[in-house]
Amino acid sequence: MTIYGIVAGGPEVLLPDLTQETIDIWIGCDRGCHYILKAHLALDLAIGDFDSVSEDILEEIKQEAKSVIVYPSDKDDSDLELAIKAVDLKAGDQMVFYGVTGGRLDHAWVNVGLLKRLAMQGFQVKMVDAHHKVSFYLPGHYTLYRQSEDYLSLLPLTAKVTGVSLTGFKYPLKHAVLTEGSSLSLSNQLIEPYGSISFQSGILMVISAKEL
């Protein structure tokens, strides 16, 4: 199993401490390459059109990265989508995305769609920033462990998610139906050391959020 860390060019202030992340291969998208190098991490692949970095920074990226792929600014795919396509994912591999939140809303929304698509293909994916950890789940049974007093929100990424049951939560559910746009499953919390989520159909995005 390989864990890929893909860093996009979202606001630097929202990045977690990348040096504390458990990653096997670091991939930078455009300005995300600069973030990886600033953290003194090995930049395994730099990819993008690099329209958001200066010539000096681009030169540093080209010198430090093990591999560099430069695309023209006029292209059909975003830098993040190009990075995803460049990875030869195998069964069991994980992808952790940084710098994909907090910037332009249209970019963030597309990023969620890209990760949803990966989850539908059976890959383990999550988004991480300084305040949130976002995971994507297909139907099944899952165990979650409490991390401080973080809020947990379950958001449907399909028209509805059926058979939703929660145990160990402040607000438990039993065979509930969550519909897209509903606030029923917003801002829940684990009250036990661990809890469970199970559901029968649909796709769930689970957001662990710190109190701001």
UniProtKB/TrEMBL annotation:
This is Thiamine diphosphokinase. Keywords: ATP-binding, Kinase, Nucleotide-binding, Transferase. PANTHER family: THIAMINE PYROPHOSPHOKINASE (PTHR41299). It comes from the Bacteria. Pfam families: TPK_B1_binding, TPK_catalytic. The lineage of its organism: Bacteria, Bacillati, Bacillota, Bacilli, Bacillales. Its EC number is 2.7.6.2. GO terms for molecular function: ATP binding; kinase activity; thiamine binding; thiamine diphosphokinase activity. One of its GO terms (biological process) is thiamine metabolic process. Residues 140-205 form the Thiamin pyrophosphokinase thiamin-binding domain. It is an enzyme of class 2 (transferase). SUPFAM superfamilies: Thiamin pyrophosphokinase, catalytic domain, Thiamin pyrophosphokinase, substrate-binding domain. Coiled coil: none annotated. InterPro entries: Thi_PPkinase, Thiamin_PyroPKinase_B1-bd, TPK, TPK_B1-bd_sf, TPK_catalytic, TPK_catalytic_sf.
